[in-house]
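Lab notebook, bench 4. The sequencing result for the construct came back, and we need a structural model before the next group meeting so we can plan mutations. Quick request posted to the team channel:

Model the 3D structure of this chain.
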Amino acid sequence: MKKQNLNTKQKNPREGTFRRSRCFPMSILLFLGLISCNPGGQKQEKAAGIPDWAVTARTQVEQWVENGSVVGAGLLIIQDGKVILQEAYGMNDAERGIPLQKNQIHKIHSMTKPFTGTAILMLMEEGMLDLDDPVSDYLEAFRNDECREITIRQLLDHTAGFVQPAYPRGSIDLYADLEEAVTDLAAHGPEHNPGTAYHYSDGHSATLGMIVTKRSGMPVEEFIAERIFEPLGMRDSYCLLKPGQPDRSRVCNTYRWTEDGYVKAWDQGDEPETPFFRASGGIYTTPGDYARFLGLIMNGGSNGQVRLLKASTLREALSPGSLNDAYGLHWELLHHFEDTAILPVFGHGGSAGTQAMALPEQNAMVFYFSQSRGTLTSEFFKEMILQELGYKEKKHFSTRPPDEWLYESYTGEYRISGRPWTVERTQQGICLKSGRLVPIDFRPVSDSVFEQPYMDWSVTFHRNAEGFADNFSFRLGERIVEAIRE
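Done. Here's the predicted structure in token form:
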């Protein structure tokens, strides 16, 4: 266990740092609406005891639904153990005109990972395994030269060497069960030497799920249901929900972005996309149920009636990983405080546009649940909350936009890594469009530089002697890719 210095003296515990992740979201998209809170609305909300940052979150989610960035979205904010805001916006089924309901059941995809990680930590506390044990001690498939030295801890902090997509067949859906997928994963071995680099991978979580199965003597999905869902009263949560089962009619439909907008990708009456629980994803739950789990974690592993983990174990789980200080033991770490007695801001997101955040300093939790694949609103939501709470600096944009002729020289068709992208003019600046992605909004900071309002992304146009832009640089954090005009 990593030791924490709890005696660090700080004049202000808020004077921490935001630890930037060394990875990027798997898709880049979304048209971001400008935040413009109505003063009268803010006054009414303040009277109801809702803080400004929560009002801003509500306003932005409303705008995302209104401008088509998502089909529908649920928002839940809990502070001091009380629900201070819970709303549902937009549609659950756009074709049938069925609106989204509060506490609708959602597929949360990678927000499943903290449950699998918690199951491993519970087994560790029970003496069933040690985090530094080789995986090969428990899974025969890992007893080969490439995988023999991989440890459980490396799976938890995504440093075991597998990448995304993880599976040799391309998708876990092409396997009969979890064990077959993990066996094939191990047979092909990791892409990188274990313990040398951080690479987020569903394969790490799937392998952890198999370890839980082997050590507990029950399938990982049964362990999670019996040892986590049931004690916490998570009655609206399932690891696998097939057609005809109770509550299946409450599951939100899933949409994906295309050139023509959102189309339904999965209907609540369809078979599960994966016919078995995959441990890296797969849980169906509601914002309210997830709050039961996240609240227990934020409260040191206990909700006053049930204890799943020791506080010291959670301190380790929420400490920076060995090679990425933005990811712990199957938890995303969003902001660290210099006073290490304060837990970091933490949580996890999911690929269909879901996000859960624990805010220990505010004694609050925030949940944003959509089912719109191909949107980065959940990433933008996370960054917005960090900015509103002062954990990240808000961006400042030019009060004098570039001349119109410059905009005309920037718009048009480009290629990035061989794929077509389009630059278009918007009311607030420009947007980048790609056929499979919701447009990404950028606003001007100078005549040639535009920044994304929430993410550390920018576009810099390069003009030739005639003043015409024939290429631009697209920066995503420390990574830069070049776009060439067609």
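DSSP finds eleven helices and 20 strands in the chain.
Will bring this to the meeting.
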